[in-house]
Structure of Guanylate cyclase domain-containing protein:
Amino acid sequence: MATSWVERRLAAILAADVVSYSRLVEQDEAETLSALKALRREVVDPLLAEHHGRIVKLMGDGALAEFGSVVDAVACAVAVQKAVAAKQVDAPTER
């Protein structure tokens, strides 16, 4: 019987999604999609790179990112939360 080689590695996975995405898309789809793209480009992607992570799957308003370290994954999650909160300070409460 032939044996197949399976590569295994340890990884930390960060799962994220946008709060109230369905409501936001219903209110203004074009603006919501534009804002989500900008947020990914300006905040998420640079922080992923800084914390040695990479997107492994995008699902509408959700994403899965892989990190080689739990410490990097948690640090990235906290940094993204803080950066998004800072960007949303002046946003209307319904957005």
